[in-house]
Design brief:
Blueprint: H1 8-64, H2 69-89, H3 94-135, H4 140-144, H5 151-179, H6 189-201, E1 206-213, H7 216-223, H8 225-243, E2 248-253, E3 256-262, H9 266-282, E4 293-299, H10 307-323, E5 329-331
Parallel strand pairs: 4-5
Antiparallel strand pairs: 1-3, 1-4, 2-3
Helix pairs in contact: 1-2, 1-3, 7-8, 8-9
């Protein structure tokens, strides 16, 4: 079951509402309790001191035994002063207000700040990991490990993974297009050079067959380039079927093709070339008339250091086949006559 994803905006708004409600409720309740406590204590203190002052004045009054109007006025004045003094002395102090009200509020604000900071870091961490992955080349492994616990990060993560996959597919497709001949669909000259370079560098024994379709210019001139293209595609398909798993087929250029046969003796290469020559001569093709081939066959020697040396030998054998009347296979026996 897919893990539940939270919507970031919903989370933030919900948390803000909850924090405000909780903080306000707690603050109001604390303030109410604190003020209520202070007022009750203040009232009790005022009552006790008021009673003490009145008792003291009354005691003095009795002792002195003053009954005249002047003394009565003085007594009332003293009562007023006593009440005023009691009220003045029992006003709620700033220190008590700080202790009872502000400190709890500050404590609550600190707790709320810590919680908001934790939530912000938790929200930002997946975004930082995605950003880091982008700087490191959008590695799929690092992206997949991102904790996408809310919807926005999940969508961003999935979007980036999809974008990376599509980009990789595009790169692979473009790479294949660079390696393949657009007309025939078989590997092109670039791929052929790469394969030959690797075989020669690693000193792998191999044979090559350089093929040319006979009198192909006349096919284009007589039937048009569209028919000529169809002839080339039909031959490329026939060549792939003949070579199968033994080696690789390439379009060398124009109406020329090459077959590379790793770990193959020259006799096997000649037999394969001859079989392909016969099939091509007997096959129907889009031009409506037979289109034969000539081929030159040669094998790798340890003295070769580049593909061009090997290709030059095969080209010499192909030239001899053309000079012999076409529709045949030739081999260059004496390599020293070609390689300087």
């Amino acid at each position: 079951m897919e893990k539940l994803k939270l919507n970031l905006s919903f989370v933030i708004i919900s948390m803000m509402i909850i924090v405000v409600l909780v903080t306000s409720s707690i603050s109001i309740w604390i303030s109410y309790q604190s003020f209520n406590e202070m007022l009750v204590q203040s009232k009790l203190v005022m009552q006790e001191e008021y009673i003490a002052e009145v008792s003291d004045i009354a005691e003095k009054y009795v002792q002195e035994g003053l009954q005249n109007a002047e003394t009565e006025g003085l007594t009332k004045e003293k009562f007023k002063q006593a009440v005023y003094q009691v009220q003045k002395e029992n006003v709620i102090s700033i220190s008590m207000f700080l202790k009872k009200v502000l400190l709890p509020l500050l404590l609550m604000l600190v707790i709320v700040f810590i919680f908001v900071l934790w939530l912000a870091l938790k929200i930002a961490r997946p975004l930082q990991e995605i950003s880091k992955s982008g700087r490191n080349g959008n590695k799929i492994g690092s992206l997949q490990s991102v904790d996408d616990w809310y919807v926005e990060v999940s969508n961003l993560k999935n979007g980036m993974l999809k974008s990376i996959a599509e980009s990789q597919n595009t790169i692979d497709e473009l790479t294949n297009q660079l390696k393949l001949d657009s007309l025939t669909g078989i590997p092109n000259r670039r791929s052929m050079d790469h394969v030959l370079n690797k075989l020669i560098t690693e000193k792998v024994p191999h044979a090559i067959i350089l093929i040319d379709l006979d009198d192909f210019k006349n096919v284009n001139d007589t039937y048009g380039h569209t028919v000529g293209d169809e002839v080339l595609k039909a031959f490329a398909s026939k060549m792939k079927d003949s070579v199968h798993q033994q080696g690789s087929c390439f379009r060398y250029g124009g109406e020329e093709f090459m077959v590379i046969l790793p770990n193959t003796a020259i006799e096997e290469a000649v037999n394969l070339a001859e079989d392909l020559r016969i099939k091509q001569a007997l096959a129907e093709n889009p031009s409506g008339r037979p289109v034969t081939l000539s081929a030159g066959v040669t094998v790798f020697a340890s003295t070769f250091s580049s593909p061009n040396e090997l290709i030059a030998i095969a080209d010499q054998a192909l030239y001899e086949a053309k000079q012999s009347g076409r529709n045949c296979i030739r081999i260059v026996e004496d390599l020293s006559s070609v390689v300087n």
